[in-house]
Design brief:
4 helices; globular; alpha+beta; two-stranded antiparallel ribbon
Length: about 80
């Protein structure tokens, strides 16, 4: 193994994984994922979103629309506030 390859995860990445695991267990996040997955099932795109590179994006009116993954995830407003379509 070359010197440049990292063996295992660093302490900071382990902390990030622990934080993310706790965050994903929150009731609000579980509900959010259930809503998105349910909508994907209705549209018959569940399991295909990754291959197509699309996300279901919430609009200001509450509707969900298909949008490029990069556009949806890059949308951040001032101070981290959402700037929904």
């Amino acid at each position: 193994m070359s010197k440049n390859k990292i063996k295992g995860r660093t302490k900071s990445s382990k902390a990030k994984l622990a934080y993310q695991a706790a965050y994903n267990k929150r009731p609000e996040e579980i509900t959010r994922r259930q809503e998105l997955n349910g909508e994907a099932r209705k549209r018959k795109i569940y399991g295909k979103r990754h291959a197509n590179g699309v996300d279901l994006s919430h609009t200001k009116s509450g509707k969900m629309v298909l949008e490029k993954r990069s556009t949806n995830r890059a949308r951040n407003g001032k101070n981290g506030k959402s700037t929904k379509k």
